[in-house]
Every structure is written in structure tokens, then in C-alpha cells.
From TrEMBL:
Organism: Streptosporangium subroseum
Stored InterPro entries: OxRdtase_Mopterin-bd_dom, OxRdtase_Mopterin-bd_sf
Listed transmembrane segments: none
SUPFAM superfamilies: Oxidoreductase molybdopterin-binding domain
Residue ranges constituting the Oxidoreductase molybdopterin-binding domain according to the UniProt record: 5-149
Superkingdom, natural source: Bacteria
Protein name per UniProt: Oxidoreductase molybdopterin binding domain-containing protein
Pfam families listed in its UniProt record: Oxidored_molyb
Length: 169
């Protein structure tokens, strides 16, 4: 299970990323603004729900801690949405404390469109369907809202260590 739908081709000239709080406050970064933030390098293991894992992958991206710094919110949930319409939900705390990035490079190279370029969410401690490719924004919510796969039977949280693949796992 890799991608639902065709690969969007988003040029960095039009790309932007936004955070929208539960009160409707919006923060937005264009490509240059995102890349001007502190870009971290991280080496992580990835786990796909169809049982493959890929160990020690190296990414560069902006931590969600950086992007959410100073954002006033009491929301507990988040939904990431992508160019092309994909969505995936997760608790806000799973985006914080060095656990998630807006990744712009893989293995030292810009992310290819197939792998979510210009930028994708990277949340390596959850199953890879949570790592939204072609990410365009994150909404912070008081109430949880299932995303694309979560609303058709995938596990709402998706912890690979507890093998949370489907509802009821
Ligand atoms: N926008 C979007 N992001 C997505 C998906 C998708 O269909 N659309 N599929 C997810 C799933 S199921 C997997 S396994 C990974 C695949 O990432 P890759 O193509 O870089 O290997 O992307 C995730 N992110
Ligand atoms: Mo997947």
C-alpha cells in the first residue's frame, strides 16, 4: 500500500504549508520561508503496514516543534492534509518533542514527487501511512477526526510496536 491516487506535481514556487489552530488562526510558510527555518537531520527506521520496514533512513526536515513553537492551542488532535486530497490523523502530542518533521530531503537529495516531494510529513514512530506525502497543512482539532485510511478500517493510532494495523488490533 503506497499511494492512493496519482502523484501530484507541486512546484516549490506555489508550494506552501499551513498550520491552522482550532480557533481558525493560520500560520503559513512558503518554500523559501520553510527552508530558512532550522533544518534538522534525522536517521530513523520506517515501518509500513504491509510488514516491510526500512532501517536507518536519513532525512532532513523542519521539526514540528519549530513550526508549532508559539502557536496558541489547547487542541489534542491533528489532521495532516496533502495536495491531492489525502488526509491522516494523529494526536497532537505525536507531532511534538522531536517525533515529527516536515521532511524536504531524503538521503541527501531533494524529495522526489513519488516520495512526497517537495515535502512530506515524517512521523517514523507510527506506521508510514501517517507520514503524509505532498503535505500542505496541519489542522489542530479539539476532537479527533479520522483521515483517509483511518476512515476505511486502518487503525486510528497505528503503533508498529503494537502492530496496530486495523480497527481492533
Ligand atoms: N498523500 C499521501 N501520502 C501517503 C500515502 C498516500 O497515499 N498519499 N500513502 C502512505 C503509505 S500507505 C505509505 S506506505 C507511504 C509510502 O511512502 P513512499 O512512497 O515514500 O515509500 O506513504 C504514505 N503517505
Ligand atoms: Mo503503506
Amino acid at each position: 500500500m503506497l499511494s492512493a491516487g496519482p502523484t501530484p506535481q507541486i512546484s516549490t514556487e506555489v508550494w506552501n504549508f499551513s498550520v491552522t489552530t482550532e480557533t481558525g488562526e493560520v500560520r503559513r510558510w512558503n518554500w523559501a520561508e520553510l527552508n530558512a527555518l532550522s533544518v534538522e537531520r534525522t536517521t530513523v527506521d520506517l515501518h509500513c503496514v504491509t510488514k516491510w520496514s526500512k532501517l536507518a533512513t536519513t532525512w532532513e526536515g523542519v521539526s514540528l516543534d519549530t513550526l508549532l513553537d508559539g502557536v496558541e492551542t489547547s487542541a489534542e488532535y491533528a489532521v495532516a492534509s496533502s495536495y491531492g486530497g489525502y488526509t491522516t490523523n494523529l494526536p497532537l502530542e505525536d507531532l511534538l518533542d522531536g517525533k515529527a518533521w516536515i521532511a524536504v530531503r531524503y538521503d541527501g537529495e531533494p524529495l522526489t514527487p513519488e516520495h512526497g516531494g517537495p515535502a512530506r510529513l515524517l512521523v517514523p514512530h507510527l506506521y508510514l501511512w501517517k507520514s503524509a506525502k505532498w503535505v500542505r497543512g496541519i489542522r489542530l482539532l479539539n476532537d479527533d477526526e479520522p483521515g483517509f485510511w483511518e476512515s476505511v478500517g486502518y487503525h486510528n493510532y497505528g503503533d508498529p510496536w503494537r502492530e496496530q494495523r486495523y480497527w481492533g488490533d
